[in-house]
UniProtKB/TrEMBL annotation:
<feature type="binding site">
    <location>
        <position position="120"/>
    </location>
    <ligand>
        <name>substrate</name>
    </ligand>
</feature>
<dbReference type="Pfam" id="PF04345">
    <property type="entry name" value="Chor_lyase"/>
</dbReference>
<feature type="binding site">
    <location>
        <position position="82"/>
    </location>
    <ligand>
        <name>substrate</name>
    </ligand>
</feature>
<dbReference type="GO" id="GO:0006744">
    <property type="term" value="P:ubiquinone biosynthetic process"/>
</dbReference>
<keyword id="KW-0456">Lyase</keyword>
<dbReference type="GO" id="GO:0042866">
    <property type="term" value="P:pyruvate biosynthetic process"/>
</dbReference>
<keyword id="KW-0670">Pyruvate</keyword>
<comment type="pathway">
    <text>Cofactor biosynthesis; ubiquinone biosynthesis.</text>
</comment>
<protein>
    <recommendedName>
        <fullName>Probable chorismate pyruvate-lyase</fullName>
        <ecNumber>4.1.3.40</ecNumber>
    </recommendedName>
</protein>
<keyword id="KW-0831">Ubiquinone biosynthesis</keyword>
<dbReference type="InterPro" id="IPR007440">
    <property type="entry name" value="Chorismate--pyruvate_lyase"/>
</dbReference>
<keyword id="KW-0963">Cytoplasm</keyword>
<dbReference type="GO" id="GO:0008813">
    <property type="term" value="F:chorismate lyase activity"/>
</dbReference>
<comment type="function">
    <text>Removes the pyruvyl group from chorismate, with concomitant aromatization of the ring, to provide 4-hydroxybenzoate (4HB) for the ubiquinone pathway.</text>
</comment>
<dbReference type="InterPro" id="IPR028978">
    <property type="entry name" value="Chorismate_lyase_/UTRA_dom_sf"/>
</dbReference>
<comment type="similarity">
    <text>Belongs to the UbiC family.</text>
</comment>
<feature type="binding site">
    <location>
        <position position="165"/>
    </location>
    <ligand>
        <name>substrate</name>
    </ligand>
</feature>
C-alpha cells in the first residue's frame, strides 16, 4: 500500500492544474463529476452499496513542503495532511489528499484530525455553511493509464482546506454507470 500511496501522491503533487472553465467544458458525464460542487462522497455513495474509506496517511507537513499553488490557495502555514482511498463495493475508486491548514483545525473543525474512516465530504457538507471553490482539473498518467484529477478548496465555517482527488481506473466517472 505504501507504493500505491507514494505513486498517487506524487502524481497529484506534480499535476499541471488548470482552472475549470465551466463554459468551455463539454457537458459530459465526466465533466459533471469534475464540476461537482457538493460532496463527492455523496455522489460516490449513489454508485454502490458500500463505500469504504481506508486512511492511508495522516501527518503534519511544514509550509516549505507545499507547492507554490497550494500556498496561494491556503496561505503560508503548516498543514495537516490526510490521505485516503475511497472504494465502492470493494473497488478502488478515488485517492484523495487533503491539506488542512493548522489554523483551520480550531473550534468546530478540530475534529477533522480524528475522522478516521468517516469521509471528509460527509463531515464538511453536513454543515450549512460549507462550500467549494477554486476547482481545478488535470490529467495524469499512471502505469500507462490517463486518469482524471481535480483539486478544489473546501470551506467549513469560513476556514479553508484543499482537496486533491484522483479518479482511479475503476471509478464510475469513466464508466457512466451512475
Amino acid at each position: 500500500m505504501l507504493n500505491f500511496r507514494l505513486l498517487h501522491m506524487s502524481a497529484l503533487m506534480s499535476a499541471n492544474w488548470k482552472a475549470l472553465d465551466r463554459q468551455q467544458l463539454e457537458t459530459t458525464t465526466q465533466s459533471e463529476w469534475l464540476r461537482e460542487l457538493h460532496s463527492m462522497t455523496d455522489r460516490l455513495k449513489c454508485c454502490c452499496v458500500t463505500l469504504d474509506v481506508n486512511v492511508l496517511g495522516l501527518h503534519q507537513c511544514e509550509v516549505n513542503v507545499l507547492t507554490e499553488s497550494e500556498r496561494s490557495l491556503l496561505g503560508n502555514e503548516a498543514c495537516f495532511v490526510r490521505e485516503v482511498l475511497l472504494s465502492g463495493d470493494n473497488m478502488p475508486w478515488l485517492y484523495a489528499r487533503t491539506l488542512v491548514p493548522m489554523s483551520t483545525l480550531t473550534e468546530q473543525e478540530e475534529d477533522i484530525v480524528y475522522l478516521g474512516a468517516v469521509p471528509l465530504g460527509q463531515r464538511v457538507f453536513s454543515r450549512t455553511n460549507a462550500r467549494r471553490d477554486e476547482i481545478e482539473v488535470a490529467t495524469v498518467v499512471i502505469e500507462g493509464k490517463t486518469l482524471l484529477a481535480r483539486r478544489s478548496r473546501l470551506w467549513a465555517n469560513n476556514k479553508p482546506m484543499l482537496v486533491s482527488e484522483l479518479f482511479l481506473p475503476q471509478a464510475p466517472i469513466y464508466h457512466g454507470n451512475c
